Amino acid sequence: MAQLTLAVAGMTCQHCVKAVTQVAMGVDGVVDCDIDLQAATVTLTLAADADTANVGERAASAIRAEGYPVEA
Ligand SMILES: [Cu+2]
């Protein structure tokens, strides 16, 4: 399965991890979400038929809408 890693700023604790995970998992095409707080990265596992660029864009805007800046 394809994976996609986003650099996401502003995540500081398990609450942030939970919030971002919830948002990311709500994006169509995302089947798993793994967050590394130290590295400030969100790694998404995508459904086999997902369009990586499209899912990436939608996930990034959903995470931004939650208040966490996503670096391009
Ligand atoms: Cu937090």
TrEMBL record:
Pfam families: HMA. One of its GO terms (molecular function) is metal ion binding. It comes from Magnetococcus marinus (strain ATCC BAA-1437 / JCM 17883 / MC-1). This is Heavy metal transport/detoxification protein. Residues 2-71 form the HMA domain. It comes from the Bacteria. Gene3D superfamilies: 3.30.70.100.
